[in-house]
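Newbie here. two chains, one complex. Structure please?
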Amino acid sequence: MTDIVLDAADLTAAPVARDRVLGRLWRHRSGRVGLVLLAVYLIVAVFGPLMVLWSPSSDVAYQNLFQALKGPSAQHLLGTDQLGRDEMVRLILGARYTLLIGVGAVALGLVVGVPLGAVSGFYRGWIDLVVQRIVDIVLAFPNFLLALALVAVLGPGLRNVIIAVSLASFPRFVRLVRASVLSVRERPFAEAARAVGVSRAGVLWRYVVPNCMAPVFVQVPLEVGSAILTAAGLGFLGLGVQQPTPEWGAMLGQAQNYIFSQSYLVTFPGLCILGAILAFNLLGDGLRDVFDPRVRAVVRRPKRQAT
Amino acid sequence: MSPLLEIRNLRTYFRTTAGVYRAADGVDLSLDPGRTLCLVGESGSGKSVTALSVMRLVGVGGSIEPGSKILFGGRNLACASEAEMLKIRGHEIAMIFQEPSTSLDPVYTVGYQIAEAVRAQAKPGQKVTRKAALQRAAELMRLVGIAEPQQRACDYPHQMSGGMLQRVMIAIALAGNPRLLIADEPTTALDATIQAQILELLKELQVKFGMAILMITHNFGVVAEMADDVAVMYAGRVVERGSAASVFTAPQHPYTQALLRSVPVLGMTIEDLHAIPGSVPSPLGWPAGCRFAPRCQHAFERCRLEQPPLTAAGTQESACWLTIRSLDKAREVQH
């Protein structure tokens, strides 16, 4: 109820885009930082290869040992790595892999997790039992260990990393969706839909599931952040995307021998990973507040009028 | 005229850890095409369960016991398959509920939800385009008395008032052009003036579409307004049924009489208002014999031993040994 009152006050304070999620996110402090940071990463990921066409290092297989391990200079802003490749060019090229793994793994986790959770919570019975035991088993393993084992079995490579990382995230979606479905399916509109002739499956997919998506939207960016971290860890151990592909985690792993002599080689990939995870986590925080009416009331508090 | 809906000995039981919950336990009803039957009774008397049984939506743990008959248009719905029920729900029998604000999906616009019902009710093989469905939705909204249907169709449920939402629910129910509309306390959640409007609308639509209405209520004002026929339920059974006029003017069953005496009328003092002593027995164990006997002032020996059947008494039917005894006496006098 307080929310409605504040809404009314808010009408005069900020009439622009009050009802759009994106607009509300923009007015949320950490949400805005997350959005901007993510936009930068996206631009670099999409246009990265075009930005670095001038450099011979844009060919990932390029080597120039005469230029190896040179510190930052006017010619190589972030220095060169052990094979003489421009570090900045490689970081720019690497953005797409990190985002692809993060988003891809979570998308796969969603595609598997949401339907499983929905079916499990809606039909209950033996389906629920089987799905929940599978989820329990997967959750019993530490995330990273599971991904590690899976890559060891499937072999390294971009696709396998995505599969391995998604396996770690899907059980959380199953749990989240199941919990929401359990409460939404008892709401009267689900029964009302049945009374006008919608089948059980129709009620689940068209009425119940759409009402369960808000917490999932909040969870997605947080999951992307953790997927990026897991993927970078795999890359660091040499089990992720293989050389010479410039994946940040792999670059970090390659550079570990030079950590004391050429510390910039570990600093910048590390910062890139940090920034990416930070972007998604801030976005997740913002989304959580935007979707939560109690927190929203605080966020939307109108500015005190000068009297 | 053969009845549109005839319920015979409907027993719907819920098996719980506490025991078998006999919510409906031998319900007998009949409803003719185009007429309105009001199902009256206290909370827990099995009214809603009877309605949900007709829709076959009794929910988890509930089952319609073998031997129950729900005859609708020549079919026995009590043993129809789920596939058959999908064809009946919405197409031939539609239902509206007590709380319109929670019976609509909050994430879609009302127009979309009506259109969805229109599409769901399209005859098999006949594909209704999204646009045509929205068009029809606007028509239906106009039909249920919503002004500016094109604009209101874009509203979400939380943007509408309770009365408007109930109109939307009715529009959804009308999408399939049903022969029977079940209304489970459709006006309980609305305020008095809106109540009257909704009842008026239902009567108007009933004439226009020629549908029968099974209305569940515990409000005698609604009964007086709407009913052609009345069935009074007590403890999972129908204790009296007949035309509204005869049940109102000459109630036969002591429960009906007591119920009518407990209706407050303007100008009455509290002393005039009669409460029925005792409380409704638990569906986990109905009393033997007549279920109203423990609370009945006129109960005698036979009432506590044997369950009375529905017996014709005047123009209505009543399930009471008292009625049966006086009828028997009258017959003896004649001989």
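Moderator note: The mean pLDDT of chain A is 83. Chain A touches chain B through 17 residues (CB under 8 Å). Thread marked as resolved.
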